[in-house]
Amino acid sequence: MSERTQNRTKSERRLAAQLAAQKAAEAKRRRQAWLGGLAGLAVVAVLVTVFVIVGQGGDDDAAPQADASPSATAPAGDAAASPGAPPAPQLPEGADPALGTKPTVTAGKGELTKLTVTPLIKGTGPAVKAGQTITTNYVGVFYKDAKEFDASWNTGQPASFPIGVGQVIKGWDQGLVGVTVGSRVQLDIPAELAYGNDASGGRPAGPLRFVVDVLAAQ
Predict the structure, then answer these.
(1) Partners of 161 in the beta sheet?
(2) Residue of 53, 149, 161, 198 marked catalytic
(3) What integer pLDDT is reported at residue 76 of this predicted model?
(4) For the whole model, what pTM was predicted?
(5) Residue-wise burial string across 28-55, b where 16 or more C-beta atoms lie within 10 A, e elsewhere
(6) Which of 138, 143, 163, 188 is catalytic?
(7) DSSP one-letter code for 145
(8) Of the listed 134, 143, 163, 195, which one is catalytic?
(9) According to the CATH classification, is domain 97-217 in 3.10.50.40?
(10) What is the DSSP code string of 156-182?
């Protein structure tokens, strides 16, 4: 074999060795990339699992707190005791807390011949003026037997209306002007200042008794 042939053979062997080394290096890089990808997927799976577990734990902790909060409009002690009860009224500043409870109204005595206004709780607010719109809670009963025929308390919504301008019965127009805001008054109203003695149309006939809480006047 000539020297030239020997040199060519050595060159071919070196080239083959270089090619083999490159292929081995490329295969190694591919294996490392594949393993790195698997590791990344494993990390993502672990993080997702952790988030799910933490999220479930947070929901379990939050549920009792929602049930523990009393209603913003009911006393804390009564929040669970009467879930179907109407909300307590918003009272004027400095008002007697008794205005937050529906009053018990009793029957009158004897014949009622004139409008009688009896203060039950004296409010500290301004006096109601004719032409103002007042907000009230009230209970209305028949004077003789105290049978209730109407009450704002049953709906939980105070009633607002102009006073002293003929929009309500005369007993209210005459009896509530001058009453101070924050007051509870009893109005004993003869039939002629109420709905009369005619019970047609579903109206309460005869003398009536109202207990009225004046919550606001504007």
Answers:
(1) 134
(2) 149
(3) 28
(4) 0.60
(5) eeeeeeeeeeeeeeeeeeeeeeeeeeee
(6) 138
(7) T
(8) 195
(9) yes
(10) T--EEEE-SSSSS-HHHHHHHTTPBTT
Which residue's entry shows tokens 């709905």?
Answer: 195
Q: Are 195 and 135 within 8 A, CB to CB?
A: no
> What per-residue string of b and e applies to 63-97 under the rule 16 or more CB within 10 Å gives b?
eeeeeeeeeeebeeeebeeeeeeeebbebbeebbe
The answer to whether 143 is a known catalytic residue is no
Neighbour tally for 170: CB within 10 Å = 14
From the candidates 96, 121, 150, 173, which is the catalytic residue? Answer: 150
For residue 117, give the 3-state DSSP assignment: strand
Residue 209 CB contacts under 8 Å (≥ 6 apart), including other chains: 105, 107, 108, 140, 141, 142, 143, 146, 186, 187, 188, 189
pLDDT mean for each 10 residues of the chain (218 residues): 54 64 67 56 40 38 33 28 58 91 96 97 96 97 97 94 96 97 98 92 94 97
Amino acid letter, 83: P
CA angle in degrees (0–180, nearest 5) for 152-158-161: 105
E strand map for the chain? 116-121, 133-142, 148-151, 159-162, 184-189, 208-217
Contacts of 124 (CB under 8 A, 6+ apart): 94, 95, 180, 182
Is residue 174 within 8 Å of residue 157, measured between CB atoms? no
